[in-house]
Design brief:
about 325 residues; alpha/beta; 6-stranded mixed beta sheet; elongated
C-alpha cells in the first residue's frame, strides 16, 4: 500500500528526516512514535504530498506521489491534529464543502457523506452547527471529512488529543473498526493508545527510524528483573552491571531495612535469571526477593530515544 524509499527533507540547515525507508501493507494499523521534533509531522506531510522531498520517493498504491500527485492523493484521507473545521457551518454543510474540494459532487457526494458520517459516528448530528458540538464530536467530524471518497489510506495525527477518557475509548474503537478495511497510520504521543490500537510501530528519533515492529515484539527486548540484596551497594552494583547480558542496572528506593533493590535490564532475548543466581551465589550475596517484569512500550520508547540527540528534526 505504501512504499517510502530513502526519503530526505531538510529545512535550510535543519534536518527534517534523512534516508527514511519503510513499507506498509494493506490493512495494517501502524503507529508513528517519537519525541517532539523527531520527524513525524515531516514524514506525514511528505506522505500526503503537502511537502516535496529533497530526495527519495513516496508511492501510494503503486502511484508515485511526485509524478501523479492527484491520483495518489485520491487514495488518502488525512485528519490533522487540529481539524480545519468551519464552526459556523452545520456538519452536513461542512462535509459537502469538503467533498467539493475533493472533486466529489452530486449524488456521489450525498452517498459518501452518508457513508462517512455513519463510519465516524456523526450521522445523528448532521444538522447541528459545528461550533455547538463537543470536542469529541468535532474530532469525529474531522474524521468523517478524512473518510470522504472512501480512501484506502487514513493518516491520523493525534486523533484523541484533548478528549476525555470516554471519548478516547470511542475514537480508538472507531479506528480499530476502520482498520479492518483500510490502512491506517496513527501519529500519537500517547503510548497506551499505540498498544491498544496499532499492530505495528515505527519509532522515529532525530529524523531517522530507530525501531520497527509489533508492540509486543519491541517490548520483549530488555526485560527487567527486580532483585533485593543485602550488603554493600557498591559491590552489588558493580557485580550486576558487569554481568554478561545486562544492558542497564539501577538502584531503586529502599523497601526493607539493611537491603537494597536493583532494577536489572537484560539485552534483547536474554534470560538473566540463572546467570544472575549463579553470580550472586558465588559472591555470597543471598537473593531476598526476585521479580521478573516485562518491558512496557514506554520502557522501549525511553530506551530507544533517551540516550540519543534529538530536537533538530521537525
Amino acid at each position: 500500500m505504501i512504499c517510502v524509499d530513502k526519503l530526505t527533507k531538510s529545512y535550510g540547515a535543519s534536518r527534517g528526516i534523512a534516508d527514511v525507508s519503510f513499507t506498509i501493507e494493506c490493512g495494517e494499523i501502524v503507529g508513528f512514535l517519537g519525541p517532539n521534533g523527531a520527524g513525524k509531522t515531516t514524514t506525514m506531510n511528505l506522505l500526503t504530498g503537502y511537502l516535496s522531498p529533497d530526495s527519495g520517493s513516496v508511492s501510494i498504491a503503486d502511484i508515485d506521489m511526485l509524478t501523479d500527485p492527484q491520483a495518489a492523493k485520491r487514495r488518502i484521507g488525512y485528519l490533522p491534529e487540529h481539524p480545519p473545521l468551519y464552526t459556523e457551518m452545520t456538519v452536513r454543510e461542512y462535509l459537502f464543502f469538503a467533498a467539493r474540494l475533493k472533486g466529489i459532487t452530486g449524488q456521489a457526494a450525498k452517498r459518501t457523506i452518508t457513508h462517512s458520517a455513519e463510519l465516524a459516528g456523526v450521522h445523528d448530528v448532521l444538522t447541528r452547527v459545528i461550533g455547538n458540538l463537543s470536542k469529541g464530536y468535532r474530532q469525529r467530524v474531522g474524521l468523517a471529512q478524512a473518510l470522504l471518497g472512501d480512501p484506502d489510506l487514513l493518516i491520523l495525527d493525534e486523533p484523541t488529543v484533548g478528549l476525555d477518557p470516554l471519548q478516547i475509548k470511542e475514537v480508538r474503537a472507531t479506528i480499530r473498526e476502520l482498520g479492518k478495511q483500510r490502512t491506517v497510520i496513527l501519529s500519537t504521543h500517547i503510548l497506551p493508545e499505540v498498544s491498544a490500537v496499532c499492530q505495528r510501530v515505527l519509532v522515529l528519533n532525530a529524523g531517522k527510524i530507530v525501531a520497527d515492529g509489533r508492540p509486543d515484539e519491541l517490548a520483549t527486548g530488555g526485560s527487567r528483573l527486580i532483585v533485593r540484596l543485602p550488603g554493600p551497594t557498591k559491590t552489588a552494583l558493580s557485580l550486576l552491571k558487569n554481568l554478561d547480558g545486562v544492558s542497564a542496572c539501577a538502584l531503586l528506593d529502599q523497601q526493607e531495612p539493611h537491603t537494597n533493590d536493583y532494577a536489572v535490564t537484560a539485552d534483547a532475548g536474554v534470560d538473566l535469571r540463572k546467570p544472575l543466581f549463579d553470580a550472586l551465589a558465588k559472591a555470597n550475596l543471598p537473593i531476598l526477593k526476585l521479580t521478573a517484569e516485562n518491558s512496557t512500550l514506554e520502557d522501549v520508547f525511553v530506551r530507544l530515544i533517551g540516550g540519543e540527540e534529538g530536537g533538530q528534526a521537525l
